[in-house]
Amino acid sequence: MSDFGPGRLSAAAYFGCVALLTALGLGVAAWAHPAFLHSSLQTMGLEAVPHAAPGSFYVTRIAPLFDARCLGCHDDTRAKGQLRLDSFAAAMRGGRDGPVIEPGNPKGSELFRRISLPSSDDRAMPPSGKTPLTADEVTVIKLWIASGASGELRTIKGAPRPVVEVKIPESDLAAVQKQRAPLAAALKQLQARYPGVIIYESRNSADLEVDASLRGAAFGDGDLAALLPLAARIVRADLSGTTITDAAAPTLVAMTSLTRLRLAHTKITDKTLVALVGLKSLKSVSVVETKVSDDALAPLRQHGVATYGGGNE
Amino acid sequence: MSDPRKEHVLVWDIPTRIFHWTIVVLVAVSWFSADNGYLRMHLWSGLTLLALLLFRVLWGLLGSTTSRFTDFLHPPRKVMAYLRGHEKSLYAGHNPAGGWMVAVMIGVLLAQAVTGLFSNDGLHFTGPLALWVSDDVSTRITGLHGTIFNIIVVFIWLHVVAVGFYLLVKNHNLVGAMVTGKKHPHLVPAGLNLSFTRLYIALLLLALTAGIVAWVFFQGVP
Q1: Cβ contact B124–A80 (<8 Å)
Q2: What stretch of H or E contains B183?
Q3: Which of A85, A216, B32, B185 could connect to A74 by a Cys-Cys bridge, CB 3.0–4.6 Å?
């Protein structure tokens, strides 16, 4: 064969052949990988991109499942098997071997087949080591496909109710102990002096609760003043029926974390109530059977504090 | 009657030719193994590719005349002139356009091999250095690994189209030359004086790059 001189094809003929072969190659790729074809057409705007409607069954029930269980491998960065499940359009396009969802036919849908396989099967999805779908989740996907794999349908009869996961924050007991430490000595002393009057709000808290109502007339201004070292930690105080007077106002004002205060059946007057306006955490005050006027409660109400009793009761 | 093959001029050394065809095989193996989930195979083909690419970079500095970057990387103006047909010089090795194609291909393949080191498949397989970076970074690099693959496919297409153009339109059999190492004397400059680096130097360089890759690999072994 000659290694130089004129070639067998003109440049135009050659590039015509290249264009033809490239188009043929892309056609074969599109035939072998329909998802690639649809993705290309949708990207070029030659094919409508299917969308799921807000509030649809897909959006509320299916997408969260795909998100939690499948996107680790089937999102835009990994797309194992060229399958993406990060959008309705991508899920409906399918993967390398074609669509994985056949609307109306769960058993004919590769996606359903894979999630239904026993975990011992190599083809099972999610693969071993990943959190498997629950029986209810598999049922939800099955019913969705059986109902036509719609992006519009809002409810599907018989679909198991969604499981709402409630997360209770773990308590940090070490942190609570650390917060309680500075109060411990004073609290111990006061608890010995006033049994049952002052306790922690809960086992996970360093905040305090005061209930002097059971001591009644035996609990007066001097006793309340004794709580002053712990005042900033007191969040609830029930002083109903005690003999406290307006002289208790400075101690009450020192309770800067106070949220609920009960002063029913006491001798406090408007003077004390006016002083309470500065307590930013206060949510409710009870002044049932006191001489407190409605005018004195008005500023508290303006700050969003619920009031009970007073001049208008 | 004399044997026409004797008239041909040796332009490509053995290491460059072996490198070229091994790369062809390894890219195919990497493609196949990634597509079919044979990730151990993918790992080893990738590591071998990396060692060979590093070797090729060193060979581009220390190898035979036609393998050196200084021989085939020409200024852009010369490349444009060549592509427009204004540059009629003969080149023993890569022509100005082909030279840059080789350099870019080496760069893209290197980027692919390096990103592969940090990639993961989201299941049980991670590249040797994937644990050096956060899961998020590894996932992003994995995405990049996939994108670079698409770029490689485009370059392979371009490479094949160019080689076909030379074969069918210009009647230059570049494939044959990359197999035998020889070109027809009418296709090389007159008075050509090529130097060929000794084979043992190629073997030493290959041992060095294989050692580097092995060292990198073992960095990722807990």
Answers
A1: no
A2: strand B182-183
A3: A85
Domains in chain A, start-ordered, CATH in brackets? Answer: 57-146 (no CATH), 173-309 (3.80.10.10)
Specify which residues B10 forms β-bridges with.
Answer: B182
Over residues B31-78, the pLDDT tens digits come to 999 888 788 899 999 999 999 999 999 999 999 999 999 999 999 999
Q: What is the pLDDT of residues A112-139, one digit of tens each?
A: 999 998 888 878 898 877 888 999 999 9
Coil, helix or strand at residue B196: coil
Give the length of chain A. 313
Other Cβ atoms closer than 10 A to A62: 24
Confidence of residue B5 (pLDDT cuts 50, 70, 90): very low
A72 touches B at CB < 8 Å: yes
What contacts B9, CB < 8 A, 6 or more positions away? B92, B182, B183, B184, B185, B188, B192
Exposure pattern of B151-173 as b/e (b: 16+ CB <10 Å)? ebeeeeeeeeeebbbbbbbbbbb
pLDDT of residue B4: 47
Over 50: is that where the pLDDT of A230 sits?
yes
Is the Cβ of B121 closer than 8 Å to some Cβ of chain A?
Answer: yes
**Nearest one of A233, A241, A307 to A273, comparing CA atoms:** A307
Find, among B6, B3, B31, B10, the residue nearest to B187 by Cα. Answer: B10
ipTM over 0.90: no
Cα gap B22→B1, rounded to integer Å: 37
Cβ–Cβ of B143/A78 closer than 8 Å? yes
